[in-house]
Amino acid sequence: MADLDQFRSETRAWLEANCPPEMRKPAEGEDDVYWGGRNATFKNDAQRAWFEACRDKGYTVPAWPREYGGAGLSPAEAKVLREEMARIGARPPLSSFGIWMLGPALLHFGTEGQKRHFLNQIARGEIRWCQGYSEPGSGSDLVSLQTFGEDKGDHWIVNGQKIWTSYADKADWIFCLVRTDKANKYQGITFMLYDMDTAGVSTKPIKLISGNSPFCETFFDDVKVPKSYGEDIPAYVGEINRGWDVAKYLLGHEREMISGADSSERGAGIGATLSRQAGGVDPVLRAELAMFDVDALAFSAMGEKFLDEVKVGKAHPAQPNMMKYAGTELNKRRHELMMAAGGSTALEWDSAETRGGAAPRNWLRTKANSIEGGTSEVMLGVIAKRILELPGA
Amino acid sequence: MPLYHTDDQAMLAETAQQFMAEEGAIAKQLRHWRDRDCKDGFGHGLWKQMAEMGFTGLLVPETDGGLGMGHVEAGIVLEEIGRNLTPSPFLTSSVMAATALAVASDEARGRWLPGLVAGESVFAVAIDEGPKHRPETIATRAERSGNGFRLSGTKDFVVYGASADMIVVAARTSGADDDADGVTLFAVPKDAAGLGHNSVRLVDSSMASHLTLDGVELDGDAVIGEVDGGRDVLNRVLDAGRVGAAAEGVGVARGAMDLTVDYLKQRKQFGRLIGEFQALQHRAAHLYSEIEIARAATTKAQQLLDADAPSASLMASVAKAKASRTAGLAVREGVQMHGGIGMTDEYDIGLYMKRDRALAEFMGDAFYHADRVARLSGY
């Protein structure tokens, strides 16, 4: 315990010295977030300083081992760091699908060579990754994917199309689910890694109702994907034709992340803030806010419980589905109420006061929460079958 | 503190689960006493058995002969009571009255606690003065009289009041009806002169009194805590009751859901098990989510109460509101998914609906507590 106290005071001092004041408040819009990558630019000096300090300390991925670019923190130390960062409102130094999605998969399924090669790049923000899962027509029925990799000995020739590929137009590499055996639905998918600059890869942004284009259509036209990038660095994670195991593992992570279980802000009540901002709300809206706060504070306790249970392996394997379902439905309600409390100000699509229409754009963006990463209906189906063990289909 | 049960608590949960499923089961307790039109509405034999298990004195300090445990442990027992719809004075006696008595004089603790621990006494709590829970307003008066007090007023929804050996009464010793100060708690023995009951059976077959206090004469040692300074104790009693009712509500929700999910797996319609229908699967899965969340909120509130944390009161209201709404959803979905059979007295699901309604009102409904969450949050 004394060690942890010491770690806390050291961490506090380090953050004080290294986290610029500008980085101690939430990012203003998506272009204010640093995603790394080959073509990355910093929005300002503070963003660069904060990222570089964290990168050098291993704090972009604090809990990963040092040899893979992390700081090798124990779970208790990582928690202290999170708490201390939250205390001063420090934003994450690097946002990255490499950190959130591919990293955990490589840590679990990767070869030693893959870990050294890819994890260090991810930790240092050198490669920006995108995720090639969904396909037109497959939606939440992910396993029905059709993108096909034809085996050519030392490489595959990949043809097909992905959709909802987040930031594919800005990504350097893709981790991609490719069918390599047409006869076997579940055991015929390979989890491949390849460069988006490879000949035959093209992307097209999809403009959304929020006015933003975070998602793309991604096309593969005779893309040549080698099977290996060097000794002990296969171009696929896990085994050939067993990529579904990796995908399922990753979906668990994604669902947990989208649920907001690890974010205290997501679970917090909003009634007090919104009532103040609105200069007093009418009684019916106040009642809605109060019921929302009840649900949000209760969900916050659930998030805490879930993480406690995950730590000791007590959580049901399908519990992330429940967290995803409940967390995203709650988040949609939160933004509905923020729009209602904001009144006409919240309607402003593009003004300085509204930071470029953050409220309506975020409100619209949240509607995807219960679609992406598996719809609420898919989550409910999983709960029904795997937890309640209801029959059929 | 992690939000799951420690090994000791898990053991208690297993014991309580087994005990209530066997001894507190619906056929053996609720239906049995209801069908005999029992004036108490619960069985004293079971109360005695609960004492043998150590349950009755869970929250009583070891120095007073109890187990000295906390609200997490009491909640474990309450969830099983809820799940089996076991009629029992546990919540009013072992949780609420025990919380009040914790600040009582040595004499009062010596007079009342041994009976509670032994399962020989049951207690009630008289707070409400109307059909809705409004504990901010206390109109019942207690005037000084000789060495003691004279209590006058009426109290409603005094659960198992007519069967209680002692009733904890919140009365006003000074100030206006809605003043925070000037409230005092009294331990009123059942044979006090001037104490009257109009006892009625409620929808869930439990018994509750409309209490009349017609110049009830009490000695000075009937006072629990400080004269005029009872609001803090009352708030503790209320929070204990809210969190306890939330735990029982989670149990009711769980019991109703289990019954319903079992039914979905057995009942065939249109040549298929109805549990195969997506419309029902999704509603059942939603209900499961709500129950898990309500349980987490309740456990959190129990832990905060045990730690005497400042946020305990807010979380107590969150837990009561969430559990009430969740149990309400569970029983409505339960009856609906059972179809016609769910409307019959023979099937248990309707009993869950009745119990939920009574429990929802007890210690304030979801509207009251959502409003309280708003006020405590500053809006």
Characterise the protein shown here.
Chain A: Residues 241-388 form the Acyl-CoA dehydrogenase/oxidase C-terminal domain. Chain A: Residues 130-223 form the Acyl-CoA oxidase/dehydrogenase middle domain. The complex is a heterodimer of chains A (393) and B (379). By secondary structure, chain A is of the alpha+beta class. Chain A folds into three domains: 2-95, Butyryl-Coa Dehydrogenase, subunit A, domain 1 (Orthogonal Bundle); 129-243, Butyryl-CoA Dehydrogenase, subunit A, domain 2; 260-387, Butyryl-CoA Dehydrogenase, subunit A, domain 3. In chain A, 44% of the residues lie in helices and 14% in strands. Chain A has twelve helices and eight strands. Chain A has helices at residues 2-18, 45-57, 75-88, 97-109, 112-123, 243-259, 264-267, 271-277, 283-311, 319-342, 358-366, 376-387, and strands spanning 129-132, 148-151, 155-166, 173-179, 189-195, 201-206, 215-226, 236-237. In chain A, the strands form two sheets. Chain A has a four-stranded mixed sheet with strand order 1-4-5-8. In chain A, β6 and β7 (215-226) form a beta hairpin. In chain A, α1 crosses α3 and α10 (319-342) runs antiparallel to α11 (358-366). In chain A, 41% of the residues are buried. Chain B has 379 residues and is an alpha+beta fold. Chain B has three domains: 7-121, Acyl-CoA dehydrogenase/oxidase, N-terminal domain (Butyryl-Coa Dehydrogenase, subunit A, domain 1), CATH 1.10.540; 125-229, Butyryl-CoA Dehydrogenase, subunit A, domain 2; 232-376, Butyryl-CoA Dehydrogenase, subunit A, domain 3 (Up-down Bundle), CATH 1.20.140. Helix content of chain B is 49%, strand content 16%. Chain B has eleven helices and ten strands. Chain B has a four-stranded mixed sheet, covered by helices on one side. In chain B, β9 and β10 form a beta hairpin. In chain B, α1 (7-23) runs parallel beside α4 (71-83), α7 packs antiparallel against α8 and α8 packs antiparallel against α9. The longest helix of chain B is centred in the middle third of the chain and has 36 residues, at 231-266. The mean pLDDT of chain B is 97. At the A-B interface, α8, α9, α10 and α12 of A face α7, β10, α8, α9 and α11 of B.
